[in-house]
């Protein structure tokens, strides 16, 4: 070594040198697990994976049977760059059936929903531009934007009645069209992470009206982050009827993933679906998405695509998967009902919660409230303006203690 460390120029570029390698949610989960292993009675409502009442990861046997049935010779080979055709067709069918939206769709395979979000950001925003999201959004949206030299701008998500603030959304969208001449809107619904909120029919009607009006003046892409949709309340799937109304004026995008709907987080199987009525525009989008695949991960998990494609298209396997998911949905619904009962009794302030992995309780000092809760052995995730609770990993029997700790933590922090 001929040069002292003190005089060695930095190898990392400037933008990379201050990045954190730790995810705060995983750090909180690790602390909760450590204290639990030490014998403490811990309630761990941090990690966004569906756990059974014994604290084990919930799995679906049909998924593993489908994986086991995949031809090893096919699975071991490279998948097509943009994805296995049978898988992509099955994903489009899962979203839209065989109707007009399906005929107007193109898709690319991605490593989970995260990959779908990446492709949307890099193909529908210029470097330096900002995506538009509600103020309560999944934190990696910002990581993806930062990493791809884009930004995140937000609008107020809830009005005074704790309903979706359509007026704030309209102002935010108008502001983006003035400042950057295009917009990519990310709406995680049904079952928003982190609030659990799902747009109702009137709110969707407002969104489609606003998007259509904006799209008459500039390019607008509306991305529906579909990650938790299968765990929504009855009727949640009717978002498709509303979103369909923007097609032909705005671009409809859907980030689809098998991670939650098939309890298969590790396979990293997802897709970005784009819907547009013009064939030539669809072809350009298809080409752009394939180019992005080649320029990032090259191609995705072939065995996973083959297995999930089979699960979606084989009637027998799909029936088994739907039945297994329904049991998991009922498990989660029990927790949702238990939380709503206890939280209303404790007068906690939170938005409408009908289903999904998470709910958030509004808090003036979330960090202080979460710290007080950790002292009591109850772990939640502080986020700006709220405490995020992962009921997906919290048994119904622990919900009364969780709500009691929430009430005490909020009171102590105020």
Walk me through the topology.
Elements: H1 14-17, H2 24-37, E1 43-44, H3 61-68, H4 72-75, H5 85-96, H6 100-103, E2 105-110, H7 112-124, E3 130-134, H8 140-147, E4 151-155, H9 166-180, E5 183-187, H10 201-215, E6 220-225, H11 239-243, E7 251-257, H12 258-261, E8 270-275, H13 279-295, H14 302-313, H15 315-345, E9 358-362, H16 366-375, E10 378-379, E11 381-383, E12 386-390, H17 399-413
Parallel strand pairs: 1-10, 3-4, 5-6, 6-7
Antiparallel strand pairs: 2-8, 7-8, 9-12, 11-12
Helix pairs in contact: 3-14, 3-15, 5-14, 7-8, 9-10, 14-15, 16-17
Task: Explain what you see.
There is one protein chain. The radius of gyration is 22 Å and the shape is globular. Helix 3 (61-68) runs antiparallel to helix 15 and helix 9 (166-180) packs parallel to helix 10 (201-215). It has helices at residues 14-17, 24-37, 61-68, 72-75, 85-96, 100-103, 112-124, 140-147, 166-180, 201-215, 239-243, 258-261, 279-295, 302-313, 315-345, 366-375, 399-413, and strands at residues 43-44, 105-110, 130-134, 151-155, 183-187, 220-225, 251-257, 270-275, 358-362, 378-379, 381-383, 386-390. The model has no long low-confidence stretch (mean pLDDT 95). It folds into two domains: 5-60 and 320-413, Alpha-Beta Complex (Aspartate Aminotransferase, domain 1); 62-316, Aspartate Aminotransferase, domain 2 (3-Layer(aba) Sandwich), CATH 3.40.640. Helices cover 46% and strands 14% of the residues. The longest helix has 31 residues, at 315-345. With 414 residues, it is of the alpha/beta class. The protein has a five-stranded mixed beta sheet, sandwiched between helices. A three-stranded antiparallel beta sheet has the order 9-12-11. The protein has 17 helices and twelve strands.
């Amino acid at each position: 070594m001929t040069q002292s460390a003190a005089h060695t120029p930095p190898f990392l570029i400037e933008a990379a040198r201050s990045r954190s390698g730790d995810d705060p949610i995983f750090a909180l989960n690790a602390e909760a697990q450590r204290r639990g292993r030490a014998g403490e009675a811990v309630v761990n409502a941090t990690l966004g994976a569906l756990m059974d009442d014994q604290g084990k990861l919930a799995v679906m046997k049909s998924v593993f049977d489908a994986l086991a049935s995949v031809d090893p010779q096919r699975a071991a080979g490279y998948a097509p760059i943009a994805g296995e055709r049978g898988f992509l067709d099955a994903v489009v069918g899962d979203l839209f059936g065989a109707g007009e939206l399906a005929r107007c769709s193109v898709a690319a395979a991605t490593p989970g929903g995260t990959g779908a979000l990446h492709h949307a950001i890099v193909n529908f925003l210029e470097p330096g531009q900002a995506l538009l999201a509600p103020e309560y959004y999944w934190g990696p949206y910002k990581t993806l934007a930062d990493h791809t030299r884009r930004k995140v701008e937000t609008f107020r998500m809830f009005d005074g009645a704790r309903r979706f603030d359509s007026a704030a959304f309209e102002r935010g969208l108008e502001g983006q069209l003035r400042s950057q001449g295009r917009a990519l809107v990310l709406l995680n619904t049904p079952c928003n992470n982190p609030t659990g909120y799902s747009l109702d029919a009137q709110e969707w009607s407002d969104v489609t009206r606003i998007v259509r009006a904006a799209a008459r003046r500039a390019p607008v892409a509306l991305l529906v982050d579909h990650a938790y949709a299968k765990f929504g309340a009855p009727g949640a799937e009717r978002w498709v009827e509303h979103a369909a109304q923007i097609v032909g004026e705005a671009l409809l995008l859907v980030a689809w993933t098998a991670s939650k709907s098939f309890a298969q987080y590790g396979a990293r199987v997802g897709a970005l679906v784009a819907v547009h009525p013009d064939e030539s525009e669809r072809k350009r989008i298809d080409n752009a998405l394939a180019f992005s695949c080649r320029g990032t991960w090259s191609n995705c998990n072939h065995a996973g695509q083959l297995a999930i494609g089979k699960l979606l298209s084989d009637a027998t396997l799909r029936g088994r998967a739907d039945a297994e998911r329904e049991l998991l949905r009922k498990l989660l619904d029990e927790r949702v009902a238990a939380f709503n009962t206890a939280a209303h009794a404790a007068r906690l302030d939170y938005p409408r919660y009908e289903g999904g992995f998470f709910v958030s309780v509004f808090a003036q000092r979330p960090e202080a409230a979460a710290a007080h809760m950790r002292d009591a052995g109850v772990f939640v995730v502080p986020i700006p303006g709220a405490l995020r609770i992962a009921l997906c990993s919290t048994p119904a029997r622990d919900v009364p203690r969780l709500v009691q700790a929430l009430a005490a933590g909020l009171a102590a922090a105020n």
